[in-house]
């Protein structure tokens, strides 16, 4: 289905980003997979080209493009080349906005230029070994010591965990109130801030996902984001945009999985005919085509609503739930239609299958999305 969602300037941006990926990312994907992390240099190259935080104000080095379609295009193109490790969306659409939205003038002036240039890589650390879905159950604490905050605790599964220069860390700030949380900007080199191992995962092999440890880290007062007790509210507020980002990538990932499967079934023969000619193959592909088209229209509408600040947490949760479940269904059917070759790492569908599975879990599981949606129904 033809999309009527983008203007000429978006098409130009897409072309430029696509060329950048072909030149600076695609040739390195295998090496990054082996290394378990992308090369730092690619972040700076992306910064030079203006692909990091394009929405940021010009005074900090941004392009002032306050239109989520640009973020959407980057999510889509990264999904099309099946690159899960170079997490521009995490840096640009998830972490950067915390600083722009809740940071002080001093924090923005100090940090945003390096973040936009790709010299300062970002991560956000909420999840702990014993608290993921239930964020209020986190144990990391920050105690006000007058001239600094004393941070203690640990985080797990943190994307960009190795590369990050600044980590936005959520910590409890009032033992009497489980929802009182602050967001702290913890910087590379702070005493007591340590990284654990780069965790081995089912997929997303080029993404550095790490444990982080905070042992009596003295966080300067000027590294608190906004109000020391409002962090939980900030997190909830930003999760709608994070979930929309997931949805943009998931529907594009489903499209990419469908494309590679269509190519394969036209070539592969069984019983003297292309497997594309079996009714089962055609019906499966027709179902996928239909569901992806329907999902795309919904996601595009969510993006436009978000541009007008009208996207609700419930609808963002619907978008994430539907598209990530769809993605997992499409990659699974795609592997099936590839037969044994679909299980081989050298085939794109195999990596897509492995990379997709986390989408139903991170940024809030499908079950949590259903909780949010049903809460909005006031049952
Ligand atoms: C590769 C990867 C990258 C990640 N990146 C980051 C990151 O950068 N920053 C970060 O902070 N976190 C990150 N995470 C963590 C991720 O967001 C959590 O894993 C996720 O929120 C689920 O939390 P959990 O793993 O503790 O599962 P749990 O909360 O223990 O959930 C286990 C199961 O119980 C179900 N469940 C829990 N509560 C309910 C309920 N109320 N009703 C019904 N079912 C329920 C869940 O849906 C799930 O099926 C990442 C995780 C991975 C694997």
UniProtKB/TrEMBL annotation:
Domain Acyl-CoA oxidase/dehydrogenase middle residues, every copy: 123-217
Acyl-CoA dehydrogenase/oxidase N-terminal domain: residues covered: 8-119
This protein's UniProt keywords: FAD, Flavoprotein, Oxidoreductase
Cofactor: FAD
The protein's Enzyme Commission number: 1.3.99.-
Entry superkingdom: Bacteria
InterPro entries associated with the record: Acyl-CoA_DH_CS (IPR006089), Acyl-CoA_Oxase/DH_mid-dom (IPR006091), Acyl-CoA_Oxase/DH_mid-dom_sf (IPR046373), AcylCo_DH-like_C (IPR036250), AcylCo_DH/oxidase_C (IPR009075), AcylCoA_DH/ox_N (IPR013786), AcylCoA_DH/ox_N_sf (IPR037069), AcylCoA_DH/oxidase_NM_dom_sf (IPR009100)
Sequence ranges assigned to domain Acyl-CoA dehydrogenase/oxidase C-terminal in this UniProt record: 230-377
Any Pfam family hit: Acyl-CoA_dh_M
One function term, GO molecular function aspect: acyl-CoA dehydrogenase activity
Record-linked PANTHER family: ACYL-COA DEHYDROGENASE, ISOVALERYL-COA DEHYDROGENASE, MITOCHONDRIAL-RELATED
Family in the record: Belongs to the acyl-CoA dehydrogenase family.
Protein name in the entry: Acyl-CoA dehydrogenase
Annotated organism of origin: Zestomonas carbonaria
Lineage: Bacteria, Pseudomonadati, Pseudomonadota, Gammaproteobacteria, Pseudomonadales
């Amino acid at each position: 289905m033809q999309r009527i969602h983008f203007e000429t300037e978006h098409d130009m941006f897409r072309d430029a980003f696509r060329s950048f990926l072909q030149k600076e990312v695609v040739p390195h994907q295998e090496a990054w997979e082996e290394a378990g992390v992308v090369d730092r240099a690619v972040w700076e190259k992306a910064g030079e080209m203006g692909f990091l935080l394009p929405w940021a104000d010009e005074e900090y080095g941004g392009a002032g493009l306050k239109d989520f379609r640009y973020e959407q295009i980057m999510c889509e193109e990264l999904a099309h080349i099946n690159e899960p490790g170079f997490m521009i969306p995490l840096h640009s659409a998830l972490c950067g906005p915390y600083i722009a939205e809740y940071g002080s003038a001093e924090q923005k002036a100090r940090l945003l230029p390096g973040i936009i240039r790709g010299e300062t890589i970002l991560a956000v650390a909420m999840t702990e070994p014993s608290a993921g879905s239930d964020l209020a159950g986190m144990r990391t604490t920050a105690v006000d010591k007058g001239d600094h905050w004393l941070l203690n605790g640990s985080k797990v599964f943190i994307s960009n965990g190795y590369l990050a220069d600044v980590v936005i860390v959520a910590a409890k700030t009032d033992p009497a109130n489980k929802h009182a949380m602050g967001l702290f900007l913890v910087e590379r080199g702070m005493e007591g801030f340590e990284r654990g191992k780069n965790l081995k995962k089912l997929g997303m092999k080029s993404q550095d996902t790490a444990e982080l440890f905070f042992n009596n880290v003295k966080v300067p007062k000027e590294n608190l984001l906004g109000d020391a007790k409002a962090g939980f509210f900030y997190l909830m507020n930003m999760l709608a945009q994070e979930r929309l980002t997931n949805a943009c990538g998931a529907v594009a990932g489903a499209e990419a999985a469908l494309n590679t499967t269509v190519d394969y079934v036209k070539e592969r023969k069984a019983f003297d005919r292309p497997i594309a000619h079996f009714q089962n193959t055609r019906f499966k592909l027709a179902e996928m085509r239909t569901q992806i088209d329907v999902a795309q229209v919904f996601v595009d509408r969510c993006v436009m609503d978000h541009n007008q600040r009208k996207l609700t947490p419930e609808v963002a949760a619907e978008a994430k739930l539907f598209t990530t479940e769809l993605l997992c269904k499409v990659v699974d059917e795609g592997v099936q239609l590839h037969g044994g070759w679909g299980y081989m790492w050298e085939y794109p569908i195999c990596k897509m299958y492995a990379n997709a599975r986390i989408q139903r879990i991170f940024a809030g599981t499908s079950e949590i999305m259903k909780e949010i949606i049903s809460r909005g129904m006031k049952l």
